[in-house]
Design a protein that fits this description.
By secondary structure, this protein is mainly alpha-helical. It has a domain at 43-58 and 69-103. The protein is built from four helices and two strands. The chain has a two-stranded antiparallel sheet. Helix 2 (45-56) packs antiparallel against helix 3.
Length: 104
């Protein structure tokens, strides 16, 4: 019984020692990420206004799709296409359940 205890104690001390050595060795090397150009939407008031206009379009969906009004969803789609032409041109877009947009 004593022998098993000493073996277990030896294993615990060895693991603790290994962890202590790793901690003292310093932080692990992090992979370098390529630098990205800064993106500042707040610097462009027109862009913020277009975002705000998109948020103001009230799109409500119900449990019963027959109760949904498709006009606001179409208005939001049209606003996004007109207000953000580069986004619409560059990102793949999927229409979900005939009303919702999913940009990838």
């Amino acid at each position: 019984m004593k022998r098993a205890f000493y073996i277990l104690l030896l294993v615990v001390v060895a693991v603790a020692g290994g962890l202590a050595l790793r901690a003292l060795a310093g932080p692990a090397a992090q992979p370098r990420r390529p630098a990205r150009a800064p993106f500042a939407v707040a610097d462009q008031p027109e862009t913020l206004e277009r975002f705000a206009a998109a948020i103001r379009i009230t799109t409500l969906s119900h449990q019963d799709p027959a109760q949904d009004d498709p006009a606001p969803f179409q208005a939001l789609r049209s606003h996004l296409e007109r207000g953000f032409p580069r986004l619409t041109a560059q990102l793949p877009r999927e229409l979900v359940n005939e009303r919702s947009l999913l940009y990838r």
